[in-house]
Amino acid sequence: MRLATVITEAGSTAAALDEDGIWRRLPAPDLSALMAAGPIRLDDLTDPLLGAVPVQPLPSPGKVVCCGLNYGDHIFEMGRELPAYPTLFTKYADTLIGPGEPIELPAGLKVDWEAELAVVVGTALWRAGRDVAAAAIAGYTVANDVSVRDWQNRTSEWFQGKAWDRSTPIGPVIVTPDEVDVAAGVEVICRVNGEEVQRGSTRTLVFDPADLLAYISTFTILRPGDVVLTGTPGGVGAGRKPPRYLVDGDVVETEIPGIGTLRNAVAFHAGPAHQ
Amino acid sequence: MRLATVITEAGSTAAALDEDGIWRRLPAPDLSALMAAGPIRLDDLTDPLLGAVPVQPLPSPGKVVCCGLNYGDHIFEMGRELPAYPTLFTKYADTLIGPGEPIELPAGLKVDWEAELAVVVGTALWRAGRDVAAAAIAGYTVANDVSVRDWQNRTSEWFQGKAWDRSTPIGPVIVTPDEVDVAAGVEVICRVNGEEVQRGSTRTLVFDPADLLAYISTFTILRPGDVVLTGTPGGVGAGRKPPRYLVDGDVVETEIPGIGTLRNAVAFHAGPAHQ
């Protein structure tokens, strides 16, 4: 099943794609509101929605936690060793944008791509083990953990390079776990202006989605609609010799076959990245 | 002026202390709700509140950003050099507790104290300079960035040692900027079981509150009620030889003269800190 927040002429609504490939309304203005209100009931499917277009699926997650260094090939390209624990940092709801929206950043930054599988929490998790965490996954979506490398590397803490407002594409849809076999492997792909720059498989994740949710829930509660980004495979621009960064007008495509593709253009502006 | 969220027999309310030392009701159930609704108008002061007790002042900040390594003496005790940029990481609203509440953590962790001045944002800030940021400060309060050192040091990213639910005391009141001269220096003090373990002055901050708000607003919007913790002075347990960590039943007092004192007991429990 595919879930989305869609816009129609009548406004925004949560929606699910039925067997005939038609989006049908779910009873909330978006998936964040729907998931906050309780378990998703697919017998709530009502009106067909004509001309529905998926937008950023989760406008108001309370927590967006990201895992770095979670694919062997990316770990080695960044010059690090396989980790004993997940490396975690955070973004905000403000960081996220939807399919087709521009990646808006001030000019002059070293901006890099990081295609990722994102996990959406379906039920609250607090000090959960792996099995409980696995059962709490509402679905998977695509994300690009776009990173401002110069700010990321100003200090030991990556947050200031990872949480630029309106820089992280996510979506276009959330696919329920019955349709996504992360252990067998789904491919995580990034293209820049049509050129493939990353391709990895989730079967090489060091910490899988259930591991990550259980680990995070050891110290902080996860609630329905919270999002965990699972890390990026090899092929980032900073790992190249010489490094390659995004320039104004570049088109970043982030794809997970079986889930969908995000297409976002880089839109640098003249506003201050002073400090 | 002192602002607080207080409880009375009638429930929770935002409140301000009048010239006679009496708490008076402000029109919202807490300071987070009051600040989200617009500028604080002190002509809104109404009923006197008898038996009012300050609790956690800001139950729902959208962003809690923390600065590490911001006092010279703490930087040197952690074996680091004076930084060119602030080191930033995050907590959640879930991380915060109020005056008198226990610091609840699983047994077996290396738990340390970090007394800090906290800044509360009063008006939205987006790509602000220093002067605009300074004018946007609603007030100051006391916080203790209680840190789980073993988890903080598992990876390069401190977040997982800093964001344990119900571990960071904050409050008891927010004092408006006209009463707190951070540049001249207010003292930031921590005591454990009555023994003073930290005492620093904000006049030695590397990055002052206006610097921090302006810097953060370069990449993410700050909204009324958001909180920035400004870092801790020297004297943390991890900086001692041998290191000293908190044990069950320890009473942590965090004081900034002119603002107030937090008193929180450590309550370790048997729940899992597995993983």
SSE diagram, text form:
2 copies of one chain form a homodimer.
Chain A: E1 2-8, E2 11-17, E3 23-26, H1 31-36, E4 53-55, E5 64-68, H2 72-77, E6 87-91, E7 96-97, E8 103-106, E9 111-112, E10 115-121, H3 130-135, E11 137-144, E12 147-148, H4 149-152, H5 159-162, E13 168-175, E14 187-192, E15 195-201, H6 209-217, E16 227-229, E17 251-256, E18 260-269
Parallel strand pairs in A: 5-16, 7-13, 8-18
Antiparallel strand pairs in A: 1-2, 1-4, 1-13, 2-3, 5-6, 9-12, 10-11, 10-16, 11-13, 14-15, 14-17, 17-18
Q: Quickly count the domains of chain A.
A: 2
CATH superfamily of the largest domain in chain A: Fumarylacetoacetase-like, C-terminal domain
Major interchain interface with per-chain residue totals = A-B, 41 and 41 residues
Beta fraction of the residues of chain A? 25-35%
> Any idea of the CATH class of the largest domain in chain A?
Alpha Beta
For the record, give the distance between the C-alpha atoms at the N and C termini of chain A, rounded to a whole number: 46 Å
CATH topology of the largest domain in chain A: Fumarylacetoacetate hydrolase, domain 2
Tell me the overall shape of chain A.
globular
| CATH architectural group of the largest domain in chain A | Alpha-Beta Complex
The tally of strands of chain A reads 18
Contiguous low-pLDDT stretches of chain A (5 residues minimum) are: none
CA-based gyration radius of chain A: 18 Å
Residues in helix, % of chain A: 10-25%
What structural category do the secondary elements of chain A indicate?
mainly beta
Mean pLDDT of chain A: 95
Number of helical segments with 4 or more residues of chain A:
6
The biggest sheet of chain A, with number of strands, parallel, antiparallel or mixed sense and barrel status, is:
11 strands, mixed
Q: What kind of oligomer do you see?
A: homodimer
Helix and strand pattern of chain A: EEEHEEHEEEEEHEEHHEEEHEEE
EC number (chains A, B): 3.7.1.5
GO molecular function (chains A, B): acylpyruvate hydrolase activity
Family (chains A, B): Belongs to the FAH family.
Protein name (chains A, B): Acylpyruvate hydrolase
